User: Fold this.
Amino acid sequence: MADYTIETVRTGYRQWTARNDRGAEVHIAAADDDTAQPSFTPVELLLAALGGCGGLVTDRTARAVQHDDLRIVVSSQSTPDDDGRIGKVTVTYELDIPADANGGNAADVFARGVRLTHEKYCTVSRTVEHGARVEAVLPDGTTGFAAG
Assistant:
C-alpha cells in the first residue's frame, strides 16, 4: 500500500486548491459560491474517490467482462441524525451486460468483481467502511485533534 501526501492551499475565501506531487490539481469550494465554480465540495471529492477507486479496481477484478461502457454513480444520503456526517453511500455500477456474454455467466463474473473490489481491493471504500484515524497537527507541532 502506498503512502500519499496532498497539499491543499487557500486561494480565496472558502476556496482551496489541492495538488498531488504529479502536478494534478482540483479546485475545492462551497457549492453555493458562484465565484468559485467549477469546483468540487469536499464531500463530492470523497464520492468521486469512491467511484474512481471502484472503477480502477474493477478494471482488474472484472477484466474478464467487457466493461468499456461502465458508468459508476456514487450518491450520498444523510438524515438529521447523522450529525455532520454522510449517512449512507450508494455506489451504483451501470452496465449493459449481454445475457450470452462469457458463456452466459458474465453478470455473475462482473458481480464477483464488484464484490471483490469493495471487500478487498478498493482502499477508499474499505477506509470509508472501516474508518481511519484522523490527527490534526497544529503549526507548533502539537496535536489539536485525534480520533479513530
Summary: The chain has two domains: 1-39, 41-147. The chain is about 30% helix and 25% strand.
